[in-house]
Every structure is written in structure tokens, then in C-alpha cells.
Structure to design on (841 residues):
């Protein structure tokens, strides 16, 4: 498997290189280059630098890319800029991968270790002297947002859960919760399943591990490939004609496109799983557009800021949550208009990148503080943690509001 | 509710989407990436040059819509013939009123502005920060730029201006440099780095004071177009500190005024309720007879049919890849394989012969390149035509894909884009 990190292997991204006309639109939209001179911009470290790489990069500024994917999204010529840069960075870090990056990329390990001692773990993460120590020892910034450990996992809840009558009358779905959805964002996963059952779907939850995204964004490609293949096999244990619905937008993006476009995993099973995967709001909006979503929402007299995460925008769907939430009477949704919250998975946790990540997120934080009472809405868990920490508000997945408007909470 | 899908995020696509949404249509705008606005000068050209029509060697147009009407009568294959000069004027006026903070001009007369290389460029609407560059107002100019800005040479600009006359009188222009990095210790900054620094009040003052110290008795001060990206009042702050009229000179891409226009129109689209779907390119379509049912969008993980009642196709021309000419001489429009026409309505498409290509591509770089007039011929509803018949009843074309004009040499790109976008949207919504 190794050798695939060599920069030549990613033919898909490499084939797009010649389409770059050096228009610099990616540089104007890059949220990192906008706030620091340490990162010269996606074109500079991407299509431009690629010509000088023989496997190794000629400078290390590439490491300041946050992998948010905005460059690829805005490119008018279809150049896979973010993908090229991810592959080049993996090659660059191969021989000196920091221990910190190996640790923070293992969400399942972290969740499993924290759950049995959840109150203790949460107290430790809130304890300044310990965080200062951790910053010095491992390089995780003392002020970086951390998830809150839960006493019960989603899978433990699911094992005891009795679906209501009528769940299954409209067919069966597979639910993909992701590791954060199992250990940290348990309530989001529960609400997602309850909502789908309320709509009449039976929900299958096959045993599932990590998709490998944090490993990928830290450049640990070999393990990431093994993990995403394992996840595909696990999801395939459920009948293979079912739609897979996910409330974890970055992990479903991994299945849909990133594993293929960045890791270069090219197999039929991954393609088939990716094609069956729907982001939860994508799935619900499609139901609404077919006239099959019940619109018996109770009014919610609220104004909330909504932030579309970079990873969601990478799905190429627009912002389905906005259309969906606007179906709820009384609810006013204000789009953040911001590019990125800064966290980009694990980027904003790192000691040397924390200040950049906060500066990247500042326009979003300003907007949230301007609009929010005490609630913000965002589809991705790491972005929600970042928003909560920076703005002092509660940040929830859109499913929380839908769940409430259906009278389920 | 009736649904519309607009393809393309340039000026034509954004304008069509806003107009459709304002008329109450549920509108989606799908695009592979951002459109071309960030690469534009951020002005609205309507018609700058018409040498063949005016019989004047400079060919410079003073009254853009009046001359566009004459051009349409003279050449029925020109986009302004299908759009109509009056409809184009109303549409450009609509755009100006949509963005009052960002576009100014009286629609009747062109304004002549200096370019970054010191040429004179006619255009119709300009950004307020550029207005004092109108040579009809000021002709004794200081041209000032920071040494650390890589895309602007005040000496080149001023020396070329000073070689020219305007309305019979010589232009006076003097170059000055200031020594002020955009960010500490940065030796060669792009325009955007300056614009972001100039969004901050303290930097606006430092910049203005550095400029002011260099000036002599010039009437107006030309500065590179970096006077703020988000702060639309930044140029006024600078002008106030400098103490005389200042004007921005647009630079090569990435263009700060172009980005302002792109940001403002994107925000206007969101306000109007347009659903923006970036990162999805159109790869195919499904039709029943002359009715287009859906287009196929390539999204992450799968291809999805996107149905709508009406479609506006505004993908641009060769520059975006919507039109392509391969090495074997095959010229095509890549999604719908629409019939193509060249300048004067000549038939194109399919396999062009070497002789055909010889007529389209001129070996003299400065001569007219007729290839770039290639595109789609349309009726007054902007529907693509084949032998005088609409190819689809509910597909409408806007912007750079239209046949019949070499937009950058005659300086008509934005007028055609906005005019055709409005004509397409109005044909869909039944507004006149």
C-alpha cells in the first residue's frame, strides 16, 4: 500500500493540474491566506509548486493549509487544488510525523478512553494547568475547543431503543453516525434516528468504525485507507440497496468523494457506498421537494445564525439545511456568509496554528454573536465545538430544530 | 411554485438568478466554481469601440446604448440585436439601482478611465472609487503606488498617459512611489493583501499620509484599485486624508473591484432567496421533444438529475471551457451540443476545415480574432436557435456564450451579460 503517497499516484488530481489558468480565484477565497502571511495561498503551494516537486515539497508553507477545500470548490476550471495539496503534504510529513498528529487523529480511541470516566475527562479538559501541560508536552493548544465526553454512547442507546409503531412503513434506511456521533454528539445521533423513525422509516445501524478522515487530514494515509475500507465493509453488512443517511457531514463527504479523490482509494464497493450516502439534510430536503415531508411543524419563534461548514459545501449540494429549516414557521435563519470556522477538523487544535484558526473564524464568530440569542446551527461537529467555545453559545445540528418542531422534544 | 435553474455564477448567471427570484420563482444557481467577476475590472462596459460602424479610426463610443442600437440595426447577428438596446439599457439601469453603493454612471455617456498601463478605456458604469479618474473631470494626474505592490508600476502608467492627448489637450501625469508594505516585512504583495489592510482605519490613514507627502499640485490622484475590499467607504477615508480627489485604477487579476462586485451580487442573490449550489458541474441533460426536463449535475459521490420548469444557461465561452476547439478543429458547446454561429451569423460547428480556421484565427495578434465571436444564436427570448427555430422552448442563453460579438475588443461584455440575463429571466417570468 505504501508508495501510494508518492505524488504521482493521484492521477485524478494530477490530471486536473493543466486546467489551472492561474486566475488566482482560489487565492482570493482561501480563508487561511486571508489572515496570515505564513500561508502564501492555494495556487502558490498547489498547481504552481507542484511543478517543482519530485515527491518532496521545496518549502514547508504547505503545512499551513487547513484542508478546508474552499479552493477546489471555487475553482472555475475544476482543478483539484485541495486534493493535490493534501497528497503533497502527506508526502512531506511522511518521515517526521509528530506524535501529536498521530494522537489527535484517532477520534474513536479518544472517545472510548474518555467515556468510562466522562466527568473526570471533561474536568481534565477544562483544567487550565493540565491543558498548559498538554500544550507543552503534545502541542495541543491550551485554549482549543474540545468535545464533551458523554456517559452513554449512541450505540448503547440504540441497543435498548424500541422504535415506535409505524417506523418502517416507508422503508428502511442505514444510519451512519460517525465516531463523534457515537461518543460525543450522542444527542444529535439519537435525534436523527428518532426523526427518521417519526417520518416512517426503519433505521438500521450496522457496527461502524472511523472513516479515517482525521488521519487523512493529518497525512496518515495508509491507516486512513485501511479504516475507510473497513467502514465500507461494515456499512455493506446492511442490505446493499438501502440509502445510507448520515448526520456527520465531513465523514459522509469522506465516503462520497474524499477517500477516492485524496487517498486514491479506487474500488467498486467504496463508489457504491458513496453513491448511496446522503447527508441528513440532503435526504430530508429531497423528501420535501418530492412533497413527501410532513409539514406539520410547530412554530419556533427563534432567529438563529446558520453556518454551512466547508466540508458540507464540498458535497456540491448548496446548503440544504437552510431550505429545510425555512419550512419551520416562525424560525428565521440567517446565513453566516463566512467561509470557514477555522477548526478544519484538527487544524485549529494545534499549538502553532491555533491563532490562525481563530483569526480565520473571526468573521463567523462576529456574525454569530450579532445574530444569536444563545443558539447557533451548523451541520458539522468540530465546527460546532469551535463556535461554542469562541462565541459562548450552544451550537446544534439542524436536526435539533426539526426534532423540536415535530414535537419530538 | 415555478422553478428555475440557472447555470453559471458570472455576471449573467447571478443577474438572471436575482431577477428570477425577485419575480417569485424558486431559483437555484448551479456552478462548477466561482464565475469570472473576480477577474473583471469591476466596471460595466456596454459598448466602448465600434470602428466599423462609426467610420472613425479610434472607433471610441461616446453614447453606448445609442450606438448599440445602431450596431444592432447594422448587424442583426450581434447580441444587442436580439436583446434590444432599450432592454439592455433598462437592465443595466436595474443593476445600478440594485448596487447603489458600488455602481455609478448616467447610462447615456461613456466615461474614459486610465488603465494600469496608462491606456484610456471607455466604460459605462464605474465604481464610486474610480469616478474621479474620468478624464472629462481631471487631466492633471498624480499616479501613486506602493513599491511593494507587485502588479502596478506608477512610472509605466504615468509615462504612457503623458504621451497622449484627450479631446485635443495633452494629459499631464507624474509618477510617485510610496514605501509602505501591505503587511510587515512583505516585499511583493498582491493587490488583495493591500485591500485587506486598507479595510482597517489605522492603515487607511498611514496609506493616505504616505500618498499625501509625495504630491505636488496635481488635480487628482490615481491609486491602484486596492482601496478596501469589505469597507466600501475606505476610498473616501483615503480621499479625505489626501485632501483632493482620488481614483482607483483597476489591476490585473485578482481584481479587488471585481471581487467587490462578485461579493455584492452573491449577497444580493442570497437575499433574493436564490439557492446557490457551488461545486457541481453540468455534465448532461434529459429532454422530451423541445422541452428540457432536467440537467445532470456532477456532485460529490454521484450524478444527479436536477429538474426545473425553466433553465438559464450562462456558462461563459471559451474562457470557462463551455465552448471548446480541439486540435482536430472540432468546435463545440459541451453540454447541449447547441448549434454554433460566428461573426455575421456564419455557420460554425462540427469539423472546421483548415481554411475555416484560417478565417477564424488571425495570424496578426492585434487583428480581429473572429473565433471569439463564435457562440449560440438566439431569439428575443434568448432561446438557442437552429435554422430559425428554438432548440428548446424552456432553455435560455445569457452572457459570453452568445454569438456575434468579440466582447473584449469592442468592450461590451457586461452590457451583453446583464442585458441577455434580464431578457432571459423576463421571457421566463412573462415580464416585459
Amino acid at each position: 500500500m505504501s508508495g501510494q503517497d508518492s505524488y504521482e499516484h493521484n492521477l485524478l488530481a494530477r490530471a486536473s493540474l493543466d486546467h489551472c489558468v492561474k486566475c488566482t480565484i482560489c487565492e482570493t477565497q482561501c480563508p487561511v491566506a486571508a489572515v496570515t502571511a505564513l500561508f502564501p495561498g492555494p495556487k502558490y503551494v498547489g498547481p504552481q509548486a507542484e511543478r517543482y516537486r519530485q515527491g518532496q515539497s521545496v518549502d514547508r508553507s504547505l503545512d499551513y493549509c487547513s484542508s478546508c477545500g474552499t479552493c477546489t470548490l471555487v475553482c472555475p476550471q475544476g482543478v483539484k487544488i485541495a486534493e493535490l495539496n493534501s497528497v503533497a503534504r502527506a508526502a512531506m510529513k511522511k518521515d517526521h510525523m509528530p506524535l501529536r498528529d498521530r494522537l489527535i487523529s484517532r477520534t474513536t480511541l479518544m472517545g472510548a478512553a474518555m467515556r468510562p470516566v466522562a466527568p473526570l475527562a471533561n474536568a481534565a479538559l477544562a483544567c487550565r494547568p493540565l491543558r498548559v501541560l498538554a500544550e507543552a508536552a503534545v502541542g495541543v493548544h491550551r485554549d482549543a475547543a474540545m468535545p464533551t465526553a458523554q456517559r452513554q454512547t449512541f450505540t448503547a442507546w440504540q441497543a435498548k431503543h424500541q422504535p415506535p409503531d409505524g417506523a418502517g412503513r416507508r422503508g428502511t434506511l442505514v444510519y451512519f453516525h460517525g465516531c463523534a456521533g457515537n461518543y460525543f454528539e450522542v444527542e444529535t445521533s439519537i435525534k436523527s434516528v428518532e426523526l427518521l423513525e417519526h417520518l416512517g422509516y426503519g433505521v438500521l445501524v450496522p457496527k461502524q468504525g472511523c472513516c479515517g478522515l482525521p488521519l487523512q487530514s493529518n497525512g496518515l494515509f495508509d491507516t486512513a485507507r485501511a479504516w475507510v475500507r473497513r467502514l465500507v465493509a461494515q456499512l455493506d453488512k446492511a442490505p446493499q440497496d438501502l440509502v445510507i443517511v448520515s448526520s456527520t457531514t465531513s465523514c459522509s463527504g469522506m465516503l462520497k468523494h474524499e477517500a477516492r479523490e485524496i487517498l486514491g482509494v479506487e474500488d467498486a464497493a467504496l463508489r457504491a457506498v458513496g453513491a448511496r450516502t446522503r447527508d441528513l439534510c440532503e435526504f430530508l430536503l429531497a423528501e420535501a421537494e418530492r412533497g413527501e415531508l410532513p409539514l406539520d411543524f410547530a412554530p419556533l419563534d427563534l432567529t438563529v445564525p446558520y453556518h454551512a461548514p466547508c466540508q458540507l459545501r464540498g458535497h456540491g449540494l448548496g446548503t440544504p439545511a437552510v431550505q429545510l429549516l425555512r419550512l419551520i414557521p416562525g424560525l428565521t435563519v440567517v446565513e453566516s456568509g463566512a467561509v470557514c470556522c477555522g477548526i478544519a477538523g484538527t487544524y485549529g487544535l494545534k499549538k502553532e496554528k491555533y491563532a490562525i484558526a481563530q483569526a480565520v473564524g473571526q468573521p463567523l464568530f462576529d456574525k454569530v454573536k450579532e445574530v444569536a440569542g444563545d443558539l447557533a446551527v451548523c451541520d458539522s461537529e468540530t465546527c460546532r465545538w469551535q463556535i461554542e467555545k469562541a462565541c459562548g453559545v450552544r451550537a446544534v445540528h439542524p436536526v435539533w430544530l426539526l426534532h423540536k418542531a415535530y414535537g419530538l422534544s | 411554485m415555478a422553478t428555475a435553474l440557472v447555470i453559471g455564477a458570472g455576471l449573467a448567471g447571478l443577474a438572471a438568478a436575482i431577477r428570477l427570484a425577485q419575480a417569485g420563482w424558486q431559483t437555484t444557481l448551479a456552478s462548477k466554481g466561482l464565475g469570472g467577476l473576480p477577474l473583471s475590472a469591476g466596471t460595466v462596459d456596454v459598448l466602448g469601440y465600434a470602428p466599423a460602424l462609426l467610420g472613425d479610426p479610434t472607433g471610441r463610443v461616446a453614447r453606448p446604448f445609442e450606438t448599440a442600437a445602431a450596431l444592432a440595426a447594422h448587424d442583426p447577428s450581434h447580441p444587442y440585436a436580439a436583446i434590444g438596446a432599450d432592454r439592455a439599457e433598462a437592465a443595466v439601469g436595474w443593476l445600478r439601482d440594485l448596487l447603489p453603493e458600488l455602481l455609478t454612471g448616467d447610462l447615456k455617456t461613456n466615461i474614459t478611465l486610465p488603465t494600469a498601463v496608462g491606456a484610456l478605456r471607455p466604460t459605462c458604469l464605474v465604481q464610486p472609487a474610480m469616478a474621479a479618474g474620468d478624464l472629462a473631470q481631471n487631466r492633471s494626474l498624480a499616479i501613486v503606488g506602493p513599491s511593494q505592490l507587485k502588479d502596478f508600476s506608477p512610472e509605466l502608467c504615468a509615462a504612457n498617459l503623458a504621451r497622449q492627448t484627450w479631446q485635443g489637450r495633452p494629459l499631464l501625469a507624474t509618477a510617485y512611489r510610496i514605501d509602505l508594505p501591505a503587511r510587515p516585512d512583505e516585499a511583493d504583495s498582491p493587490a488583495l493583501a493591500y485591500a485587506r489592510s486598507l479595510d482597517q482605519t489605522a492603515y487607511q490613514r498611514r496609506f493616505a499620509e504616505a500618498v499625501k507627502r509625495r504630491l505636488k499640485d496635481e488635480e487628482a490622484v490615481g491609486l491602484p484599485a486596492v482601496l478596501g475590499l469589505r469597507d466600501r467607504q475606505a476610498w473616501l477615508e483615503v480621499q479625505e486624508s489626501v485632501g483632493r480627489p482620488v481614483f482607483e485604477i483597476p489591476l490585473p487579476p485578482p481584481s479587488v473591484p471585481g471581487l467587490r462586485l462578485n461579493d455584492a451580487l452573491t449577497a444580493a442573490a442570497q437575499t433574493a432567496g436564490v439557492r446557490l449550489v457551488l461545486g457541481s458541474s453540468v455534465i448532461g441533460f434529459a429532454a422530451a421533444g423541445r422541452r428540457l426536463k432536467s440537467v445532470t449535475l456532477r456532485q460529490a459521490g454521484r450524478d444527479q438529475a436536477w429538474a426545473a420548469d425553466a433553465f438559464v444557461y450562462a456558462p461563459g465561452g471559451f474562457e470557462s471551457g463551455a465552448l471548446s476547439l480541439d486540435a482536430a478543429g472540432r468546435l463545440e458547446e459541451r453540454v447541449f451540443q447547441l448549434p454554433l454561429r460566428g461573426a455575421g451569423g456564419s455557420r460554425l460547428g462540427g469539423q472546421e476545415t483548415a481554411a475555416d480556421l484560417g478565417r477564424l484565427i488571425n495570424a496578426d495578434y492585434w487583428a480581429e480574432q473572429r473565433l471569439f465571436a463564435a457562440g449560440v444564436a438566439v431569439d428575443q427570448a434568448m432561446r438557442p436557435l437552429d435554422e430559425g427555430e428554438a432548440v428548446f422552448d424552456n432553455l435560455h442563453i445569457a452572457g459570453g456564450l452568445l454569438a456575434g460579438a468579440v466582447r473584449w475588443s469592442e468592450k461590451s461584455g457586461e452590457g451583453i451579460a446583464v442585458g441577455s440575463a434580464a431578457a432571459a429571466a423576463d421571457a421566463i417570468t412573462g415580464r416585459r
